[in-house]
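Thread: Newbie trying to understand structure tokens

Hi all, I'm a second-year student working on a class project, and my supervisor (Dr. K.) asked me to get a predicted structure for one chain before our next meeting. I've only ever worked with sequences, so writing a 3D structure as a token string is new to me. If someone could post the tokens and maybe explain what I'm looking at, I'd be very grateful. Here's the chain:
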Amino acid sequence: MMKKKKGLFQTLMSVLLVVCLGMTACSENVDMDSRYVFNKKTVMEYLLAHEDYSEYCNLLKISTLSNMTSTTLDKLLLARGHYTVFAPTNDAIQNYLDTLAASVEDPYITSPSWDSFTDSDKRDSIKKLIVLNSVIDSGDNYPAYQSADFPEVSGGEFSHSNLNDRKLSIFYSDSPDSVYVNKDCLINPRNKDIILLNGYIHQVERVVAPSDLSACVYLKRIIQEQRDGFLVMARAIEACGLLDTLNAMRDEVYEELDNRGYIESYGDIPPPRHRLYGFTIFSVTDDYWRAQGLNPTDPDLLSHLTQWIQEQHQYAEGDVFTTDENYSDPGNLLYQWVTYHILPMRVPSDKLIIHNPINYPLVPVPDYFITFGKRRLIKVFETAKSDGIRLNRFANLDYERTGNGKEVSCDPDKEGIRINVDDPKAILSDIANCCIYPIEHPLAYDDATRDNLFGERLRFDIMSMFPETMTNDVRCKRLTHSGLNDENFHTFPPHEIYDYCQDMQLGTQSRPRYSNYSGTGMMFGDELLIYGNYDVTIHFPPVPRTSTYEVRIGYIAQYNRGIAQFYFGTDPDRLPVTGIPLDMTRMGENLPGYESDSDDQDYNAELDKRMRNYGLMKGPLSIKDCRSSLPWIRTIVARTMMGPDKDYYLRMKSVIDSDERQGVIDFIELCPKEVYDNPEKPKDIW
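---
Reply by user tm_fold:
Sure, no problem. This is what the structure looks like when written as tokens:
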């Protein structure tokens, strides 16, 4: 995976580049005379001083931020702030008009000029979008983006949206000077990082114009044009009746409730601005299918694909399915196979795996996706030996008590499927509500995958269980800053107003606070706090096999926590109580059975057994200082029989009538008896 290298060397080279630019001519003929005093100008003053941006300046002067204000964008860029501007040259804007005029899908422009538009409203809208898409406002608390602060991974998104409320991505090629916005807008290497009083300018060779296409429209075009790449998957998705679902972009009900004031902040903690829908598709390319003897344009492709799935045994023994041509039936084999390749969330490339930088690469930590349709698990993992991010990789890890947690080896049949993030066929910014990642082989929820998942403790960051938090950039939002403010926290409305997270139901007096502590010792950098006389019910992840499981909660005990009663079962309205209430204020020596680790590992194992007798465990060793830190605790909420074809729910209810006390969940664990009570392989502490 191509990554950007940052550090002191790059910073020094950037300074040297600025000096050198003052002594050389620019291929775009931008006037360099003012480069020595550019830090005394605002963004707008700099643009006005260079003729090559004259057309862009004209658009800034007539474009407003929204229909609710008359202030034009040129005034905004003259004011104080932290603005990142991807400024198109006159040639870039003209090339954009050329492209519009050549497009058969845009009949409103007859020739490549603003005067040729047959629809003045459409013309004005395009002018405004050119401007809004080109500017990122980092707000009062965060700096503008210089190139050293761009996303590190190719395809990674800026943490702040542009003025059009869209996320922009950065792509790196093999050349260190070839950096693109949204894959096709080259940043001029000699006219970037222009530092001004209120931000940075990066000159781009094309207009930044992120797609507004839904996955539905995009896949339909693939099918209509017989476009090679993902034609087989597109046709299979269409046959399964999923295109309408993939057309969803924005929850208008939530928007209306927010506009009418029903979606309230909790103190200074705001709710998410939007509730967008998103999807992620993992797919082999058409080249793979041709190698398997399938023709992507074959009229009988779907029946042949179904036959291939059967012959390759891409399912588990005991699965019940049909193989007729009613592909839209959830019980159909093709439907079940296709939906195992789709996630109900949009996952940008830099969040496919969320490493805690305090631990990684020392201790790789797996995560798990819950798939679209029938809820099944996909493991996502990356280690120093994995050659990138892989799906369903089950490596051998050094999980001994004195081990290092790293990957030791991986059996050939457990290497997993590599996500080809850097493949040119990857679709990361061409679809507004979806990413499509090429993978090396098809995914299969077969017996081997289920057995491998069943053979390990499943640990989920609490916020990874809610697709809405990933799609709407709530979870682990990456911010370049020092300190915390409202962009690190979000609240969600109670159930009677609206369920923002479909799999989390909040009681009337629950006051949740999602906390983004990215880069800290939290599991993946976030946690869920709930204030007030809280009552929250969470839809739990599925399990791969039927067995007795330990249901565990990981949290940090503090004196301002409360006392919570837990419930667990299959009927969310009638959940049975599990054990006695949990006092989340107790830590360390105040916990029954607790004693600090010694140098004697056998004695430490006995200490762990003693704590487990009270339903308690120390924090996992895979999180730095977690096991040795007194506040880190895992509690065993329940030991219960669970099966893969049932839905399970956890309820956490305060037993203290107080608005000041907190309930907290950092992560949850599902551990089968075959793992936690294995006589041949002792329980690991990782």
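A couple of things are worth pointing out once you decode it. The two ends are 28 Å apart (CA to CA). The first strand starts at residue 83 and ends at 88. Feel free to ask follow-ups in this thread.
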